[in-house]
């Protein structure tokens, strides 16, 4: 044993291992500094100091990266391997502490002082040793991975210091736990720690055994139910009764034959259908598989609408549905003209930015109508969970695909106009970042194989015309904003609002309330009064609400006595009866009240 007060020894830093006294450990040495330290020790007195690194990932640890407490060891055997590395066998002698590091450019050289153990020889230590041996026997009985021969040899050790060190070496302890045991000089405290660890591991193993037994019984019950169900189906067949489960399978099989699917998807559907046919229709797993097959068969894979991009017709339709907005409409027509010439929809994603009520969403709907595509809208406002975009994995109860795939199912074609509304109001929390998931959706280079967690198969979104809307740009993540071309929709002027009210909003409200135009005689002055004193907005949403209020009140009068109703003239003074006290004051900017 090493008993000198101070000794200078080469240092070997260890990764993910702690060597204890009374133990022999084989080590593979590959680092240059470590090889030099081994050769130095082997060529002198064969003594070397082993201490663990605090961070195993470091290839060149510094003095601060090595624990001060380690083990003085003797090199029993050294074997040089063909690749230049070494294999050594070391025997732990006793604990030591690094007093200081000495300067040596080739390897670590340290001055070490021994750490004397405190070996209590009282009754409590003897009792702890006995309890540890009993617990070790019980632990070895449950844990078949531990070597029985090592356990038997250890049970014959009566020295508490040797027993605690050798036991520490064979148990599956974490690095920090082993280092803590090495640094503990009190043998009694080491035995207490080891006893608590063994008791805890035994309890975990027993709990695992109880869980396995419970699951086994549940599986046996499920299997029994399946056999009984199969017997019941056989009886029903003999009696000539209809099997609902089989009829469902037959219906699914018909859909599989009718549906045109990509080869990869068709293989998955056939595999899942075969699995479903072997299950009990009443089992929970059968429902999951049936729903999965239903989703794959319901999605459009090849179905598409034919584009009808006639520039004159698009201009006419946009002018008919939207007053003003000349620049945005011109940019949209340019975008569609390029698509018509290139026969491709790859390009920038359009993002309509403007205040509420200026017609962003309705403009996207008009584009779909103009080019003959189906329109799907998805609101992103308040979405905080990435699963809303990508879906949930099928292992979860009640799992569904994300909103993108659900929207494609509603569209029924692979080339709809998909409006992502309120893209500036996406949130983010511990459940993920939906904006990051949208990057794959909106990137033309990636969305040909969009990965939904529920489908677990790539879905082609490259033929979809995505249009996003937002009220502001500063809340949109830069990476997402970079994939979009911004088209700003400014607020309407008074004159534009007046024209929109006369030509779009009022006729729509009259139709919605079942009124004739002569029943609601609104002239320009009255409409301007509504705009100025009952609304204050960039768009026309509140203006339409006020017009709806007037139509409702007149509709009530008409419904009371349709035969005797006479249209009355709506004047500015009459507005207060219909809409109440003016909500805003109209005046010139900077004018003193």
List the helices and strands and how they pair.
Layout: E1 7-14, E2 24-29, H1 32-42, E3 47-52, E4 69-80, E5 86-102, E6 109-114, H2 123-142, H3 148-155, H4 160-170, H5 175-183, H6 187-239, H7 244-258, H8 263-277, H9 284-298, H10 311-321, H11 326-342, E7 349-353, H12 360-371, E8 375-379, H13 387-390, H14 403-411, E9 417-421, H15 434-442, E10 450-451, E11 458-459, E12 465-470, H16 478-481, E13 484-488, H17 494-513, H18 524-533, H19 541-560, H20 575-579
Parallel strand pairs: 1-3, 7-12, 7-13, 8-9, 9-12
Antiparallel strand pairs: 1-6, 2-5, 3-4, 4-5, 5-6, 10-11
Helix pairs in contact: 2-3, 2-6, 4-6, 7-8, 8-9, 10-11, 10-12, 17-18, 17-19
Task: Characterise the protein shown here.
By secondary structure, the protein is of the alpha/beta class. The protein has 4 domains: 7-114, Roll (Archaeosine Trna-guanine Transglycosylase, Chain: A, domain 4); 244-298, no CATH class; 311-488, P-loop containing nucleotide triphosphate hydrolases (Rossmann fold, 3-Layer(aba) Sandwich); 494-579, Helicase, Ruva Protein, domain 3 (Orthogonal Bundle). 47% of the residues lie in helices and 14% in strands. It contains 20 helices and 13 strands. The chain has helices at residues 32-42, 123-142, 148-155, 160-170, 175-183, 187-239, 244-258, 263-277, 284-298, 311-321, 326-342, 360-371, 387-390, 403-411, 434-442, 478-481, 494-513, 524-533, 541-560, 575-579, and strands at residues 7-14, 24-29, 47-52, 69-80, 86-102, 109-114, 349-353, 375-379, 417-421, 450-451, 458-459, 465-470, 484-488. A 5-stranded mixed beta barrel has the order 1-3-4-5-6. Strands 8-9-12-7-13 form a 5-stranded parallel β-sheet, with helices on both faces. A hairpin with a 6-residue loop joins strand 5 and strand 6. Helix 7 runs antiparallel to helix 8. The longest helix has 53 residues, at 187-239. The protein is elongated and about 115 Å long. The N and C termini lie far apart (101 Å). The mean pLDDT is 84.
């Amino acid at each position: 044993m090493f008993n000198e007060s101070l000794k200078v020894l080469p240092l070997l830093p260890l990764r993910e291992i702690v060597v204890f006294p009374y133990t022999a450990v084989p080590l593979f040495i590959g680092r240059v500094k470590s090889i030099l330290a081994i050769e130095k020790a082997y060529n002198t007195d064969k003594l070397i100091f082993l201490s663990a690194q605090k961070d195993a990932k470091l290839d060149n640890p510094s003095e601060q990266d090595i624990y001060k407490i380690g083990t003085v060891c003797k090199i029993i055997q050294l074997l040089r391997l063909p690749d230049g590395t070494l294999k050594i066998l070391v025997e732990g002698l006793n604990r030591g502490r690094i007093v200081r590091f000495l300067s040596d450019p080739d390897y670590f050289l340290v001055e070490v002082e021994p750490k004397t153990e405190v070996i209590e020889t009282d009754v409590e230590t003897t009792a702890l040793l006995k309890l540890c041996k009993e617990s070790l026997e019980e632990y070895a009985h449950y844990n078949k991975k531990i070597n029985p021969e090592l356990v038997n040899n250890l049970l014959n050790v009566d020295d508490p210091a040797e027993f605690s060190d050798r036991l520490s070496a064979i148990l599956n302890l974490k690095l920090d736990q082993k280092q803590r045991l090495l640094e503990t000089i009190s043998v009694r405290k080491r035995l207490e720690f080891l006893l608590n660890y063994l008791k805890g591991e035994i309890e975990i193993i027993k709990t695992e055994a109880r869980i396995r037994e419970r699951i086994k019984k549940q599986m046996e019950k499920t299997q029994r139910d399946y056999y009984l169900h199969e017997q019941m189906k056989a009886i029903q067949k003999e009696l000539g009764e209809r099997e609902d489960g089989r009829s469902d399978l037959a219906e699914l099989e018909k859909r599989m034959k009718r549906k045109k699917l990509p080869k990869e998807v068709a293989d998955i559907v056939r595999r899942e259908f075969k699995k479903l046919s072997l299950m009990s229709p009443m089992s929970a797993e059968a429902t999951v598989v049936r729903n999965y097959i239903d989703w794959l068969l319901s999605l459009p894979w090849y179905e598409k609408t034919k584009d009808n991009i006639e520039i004159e017709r698009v201009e006419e339709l946009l002018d008919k549905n939207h007053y003003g907005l000349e620049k945005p409409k011109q940019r949209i027509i340019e975008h569609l003209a390029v698509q018509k010439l290139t026969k491709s929809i790859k390009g920038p994603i359009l993002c309509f930015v403007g205040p509420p009520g200026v017609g962003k969403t309705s403009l996207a709907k008009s584009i779909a109508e103009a080019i003959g595509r189906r329109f799907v809208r998805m609101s992103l406002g308040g979405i905080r969970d990435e699963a809303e975009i990508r879906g949930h994995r099928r292992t979860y109860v009640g799992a569904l695909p994300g909103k993108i795939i659900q929207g494609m199912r509603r569209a029924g074609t692979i080339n709809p106009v998909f409006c992502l509304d309120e893209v500036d109001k996406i949130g983010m929390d511990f459940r993920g970042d939906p904006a990051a998931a949208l990057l794959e959706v909106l990137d033309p280079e990636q969305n040909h194989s969009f990965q939904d967690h529920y489908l677990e198969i790539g879905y082609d979104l490259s033929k979809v015309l995505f249009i996003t809307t937002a009220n502001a740009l500063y809340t949109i993540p830069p990476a997402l904003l970079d994939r979009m071309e911004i088209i700003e929709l400014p607020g309407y002027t008074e004159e534009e609002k007046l024209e929109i009210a006369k030509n779009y909003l009022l006729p729509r409200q009259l139709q919605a309330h079942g009124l004739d135009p002569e029943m609601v005689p609104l002239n320009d002055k009255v409409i301007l009064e509504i705009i100025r004193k009952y609304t204050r907005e960039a768009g026309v949403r509140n203006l339409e609400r006020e017009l709806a209020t007037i139509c409702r009140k007149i509709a009530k009068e008409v419904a009371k006595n349709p035969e005797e109703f006479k249209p009355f003239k709506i004047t500015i003074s009459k507005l207060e009866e219909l809409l109440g006290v003016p909500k805003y004051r109209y005046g010139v900017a900077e004018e003193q009240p």
